[in-house]
Fold this sequence. Notes:
The protein is mainly α. It has two domains: 31-104, no CATH class; 126-285, no CATH class. Helices cover 73% and strands 0% of the residues. It contains 13 helices and no strands. It is globular. The chain starts with 7 loop residues before the first helix and ends in a 6-residue tail after the last helix.
Amino acid sequence: MIDFGIPLLIGYTLLPIVFILLSNYLFEKTEFANYVYGLFALSFVSKLSEPKRNDFLKSIFNKVNYKKLRAIENLIYCLPFTLFLIYKNQFAFSIILNIFVIIITLFNFSTSLNVTIPTPFSKKPFEFTVGFRKTFYVFPIAYFLTYISISVGNFNLGVFSMLLIGITCFSYYSKIENEYFVWNYNLSSKEFLLEKTKTCLMYFSLLSLPIIITLAICFFNEIDILIVFFLLCYAYLTTIIFAKYSSFPNEMNMSQGILIAISLMFPPILLIFIPLFYSQSIKKLNTILND
């Protein structure tokens, strides 16, 4: 939230609302929501199983207190998922999920890989090279959701899988790079923004191409809706790039975060925000790049 320039008070207020809306959307769109939801919950809780972290806890607490603490931690982390499952009358599944959450406390494992994951991207556009390696697990999930959408004939779930990739790519542009890496392009401000935007849209298209082709073939009657959502992803990715450099070399501020949040609720306003962020980016980049 800080990276996106969103005040913590607003962020903590919006977070449970977004969680409930996304959870409800998932259960409305697929009959396999229980399993997908459980995987998300276990993935979230597994962050507490880092070996270094738990070795530190073991050095402080005795064996009994350590196990109690780990169980309580995992149950608290899983609590939002448990409450929503209860709200959906999924009592048996909520019990099973919490049993798995407690079982996880018996094991310590690193959730970060120490291997270099190959990417389909060159080294120059570092956002996708770095971002893909951190979020590579999202893409098999998105492709699997597409498969499920085809199996059950649910077009909306397929669109959601494409939006999931769009949101993931969107997150790659939350960090500001060093001024040197911008200056190193040796381009004018307009050429730099064009290069960044072209690279982003090209790689997003590459990652979402299997979903788009599959949905276009299996849901041909809804292809116009698919195109609209695909172009919306283009618009939001363009917006985040322009917003990122509109405050360069500083991080995005609170006002920019609010404008982006407003655009998520009312997409037509992007027709105003995109030119606004673009003009601000040109002014900021002119101090670093030669026009």
